[in-house]
Each structure stands twice: as C-alpha cells, then as structure tokens.
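Format notes (please read before filing issues)

Several people have asked whether sequences and structure tokens are stored in separate files. They are not. Every record keeps both together, in the order shown below: the sequence lines, then the token lines. Line labels are part of the format and must not be stripped during preprocessing.
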Amino acid sequence: MTSSDHSGIERQADGDPHAGGASALAAPPEGQNQQIPQRPAGALLATSRLRQLRRDLADAIRGTEMDYTRGSIGRAIFLLAVPMMLEMVLESVFAVVDVYFVSSLGASAVATVGLTESVLTLIYAVAIGLAMGTTALVARRIGEKNPREAADAAVQAIIVALAASIPFSIAGIFFAQRILILMGADAWAIEHGWGYTAWMLGGNAVVMLIFIINAIFRGAGDAAIAMRVLWIANGINIVLDPILIYGWGPFPEMGVTGAAIATNIGRGFGVLIQLYVLFRGAKHIRVALRQVHLHARVMWRLIRTSLGGIGQFIIATSSWVFLVRIVSEFGAEALAGYTIAVRILVFTFLPAWGLSNAAATLVGQNLGAKQPQRAERSVWMTGLANMCFLVIVSLVYILFSEPLVRIFTAERAVIEAGSQCLMIVSFGYLFYAWGMVMPQAFNGAGDTWTPTKINFVCFWLLEIPLAYVLAMTLDLKATGVYWSIVIAESTVGIVGIMLFRRGTWKKTQL
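Then the structure lines:
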C-alpha cells in the first residue's frame, strides 16, 4: 500500500468526505450501480481510539506539559502511570539482576544479598518516607501554580536526604560483618560476603538521592524524566555486574562484592543526570542556583510531613526484617528460596506501586487546585486499574511459580522453597492493589499518619506475631511466614478503603 493510500484511509477515519484520492472521486460507469465500500462505524471508532492511544503512549514516555488538574482523569492517570510503572520496573531490575548473576556463586551468596537487602529496607524506608513528603509538598505547590515554592521544597528534600544517609554509611563501612552476624548469616557470608554489605550500606546516599529526586519529578508531573534516568542507571548496572562479579577483561574477580559496586556506579550516574535535569529545568519544575540554601520553614514542613511517611515504611519494612530472621531458622536453602521469590514479587510490586504513585500526584495537585472530588475520583480509578493488573500477575505466578524460580537457581531445595513462597503470596494480590493505592492517596494529600497507624496494626500487631506462631509454634515452618504475609497485606487494603471513604484526608493542610 502506498503512502497516498494510507493518507486516504486516515482521512476517511477522520470523517473527511473527500478522502480516498482520485479513485474515490471518480463517477461509476454508466449503467452500473456501484457503491463505495464504507468502513463500519465500530472500525472507525477503534482506529481512532488506537491512534489516540499511540499518541498518549508517546506523550507518556516523552513527557508532557499537561495540567493534571484539568481534562480527562483517565488520560491523566495514563500519562503519569506509564512512566511511573516503567520507572519502578527498572528499579526492581537492580535487585533481580544482582540475584541473577550472584546465584551462580551459590546459595550462601544469594542469602548474603537477601540479608543485606533486608537491612537496606530500613534505608528504603527513610528514602521512601522522605519521598512521600517531597511528592506531597511539590504536588501541592504545583497544583497551586507556585513552581518557585515547589523548587524550594525540592532543594530542602535533597539536603535532608544527604544528611539522613550519613549514619547508614558509617554503619555499613565499619560494622558490615557484625550486621551479617546479627542477621543470622552463615560462615561463608560473614567471611566472603561482608564486602557486598559494606558497599551497599556505605554507598546508600545514591539510593536516597535517586528516590528523592525522582519523587520531585513525580510530584511536579515530570514522571517521564524519572523513568529515563533509571533506564541509563540500569543499563550501566547490567553491563558492569558480570564484568565485576566474574572479573572479565582487565577487571579483577570481585564475586558478590562486584554486584554492589556495579549497582552503586549505575545509581551514581543516575543521580548526576537527575541533578543536571533539575537545574537545567524540566517541563514543570526548575531549581535555580540561588535557591540552594537552607530554608528552615520549608525544611521543617517537609520533615513534619515526611515523619509519618518514614514511620509507615519503617514499620512495614522492619516487619520484613523480622520475617527474614524467622525464615533463616530453616536453613540457607529456605532463605535463598525466599530471597528469590521476593525479588520476583518485587518485580511486579514495584510497577503496581508506580501506578499507585499516580494517585499521590493527582491527589496532591488537585487538592492544591481546590478540587477534592476530582482527587477522590482519581484514586478510585487508579485502584481499579491496579487491581486488574495485579490479578493478571497473580494468575501467572500461581501457574508458573516453579519455572520462574528455576530461572535463578538449579538447586532443587531452593526451587521448592521459592516456588511455594511465590504461589502462596500471590493469593492476596487482589487486596494488595488497594493496599498500595490507598496509602499513596493519603500520602499525596499530606496525611502520612493514617497509613502509619494502619501499618502499625497490620504489620507489627498482626503479621509478625502471626508469622512466629504459624512458623514456630504450629510448626508450619516457612509456609507459616508466607501465609502471614497474605493475611496482613490483605488487611491493609481493606482497612485503607474503609478509612479513605471517610474523606478526612481532604482537609489536610500543607
């Protein structure tokens, strides 16, 4: 088909009565009752929608200057959610790639990654908690059409993140082996794996910054930038991982430590790109050099808003530390299987969380624009989309749990433990969707304390005691831990919906 043919078809789809070129205009021969074929109305509508979807997808990946307080809510969710989901997929790639290459070094090496990652969750808690406060403040100021104060909040967030990273760096550099001993690591991990722990904790500043600056972009509505940064950071990590782990070319063989170095280098480059874009100017936010100074009032507002966010994620992530400690009682194979299963789960949890982040941005900006009803409708629509996504994922995990775990290991005991964890935890995905969206809606409004209270009850008062009783007292072993996750996470979703319906979050002042 020629380009003119394509042009004619497109003009017909757009309703042009003169579409189709010369052949369409020619009169039928005399005596013949010819009719020009007409495309069914349904086909025209489908073509139009497909064309619009392609345009929206391109805008989502490229970035757009759309005002998210106006126009179609569905389109706003799509434009924000696509890059946010891809961003979170790429963030999860860091952990999955590390486990993939490290798994060839044995179960103890994989266990080292799992134990270190469980400690890193405390850092993620602080980073994500600060990110929630940052997103809420930036989104609210952007919704109020006040980009200068949004940039002020961005600068204070970066300063706070750097300050928060210092204690974790000291702990990692000087106490890596002691941390592994405390976490129940075996002799191999303590002797050979401490370098991985030291590098991951010692270089945590890049983790903090990549989370915080991406939260700035998300709050402003520049989610596509955050996605592209992680493309580059992950590309560097994927290339460097096997080079440094196995010692390819002129590089020495560093084993599991090489995975940590590769991850830090990749994230470090990502942070440099973020800072360049932030100061050069994104589509919705730009930081001027004159704004780089301490601003006590804005910093205190950020810290006050973030404390609830930090609290909720410390509660949630520290519960995972306790779960890892319980699973470690059943041997390195059980712990390695649990570690691999969690990495696979995170691979879809993070994109779902990225979709949930769209709710936080829309709530913050629409409350800033004095449109609480639009904010509420955005949350329900985002929750339904997240639920559909996770239900499909759960079916895949339930049906193909063993083949998925086998990608990372050939050890039979590890495969059995990992596939069992993957299958059981997947049963709760329907409720997990709402357990992600509802807390993000509260966070986007600046009400970070409501999710904190939910997490305290569901994780510390329910999940941890239940895991211990099922695993140790009732002798269900690691299986009991897996079921405690399903019950606790599902409860988060149900309680979140009940509290969201009350509407008190609409009155939060920032």
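For reference, the curators noted about this record: The CA atoms of residues 60 and 79 lie 5 Å apart. Residues 68-507 form one domain.
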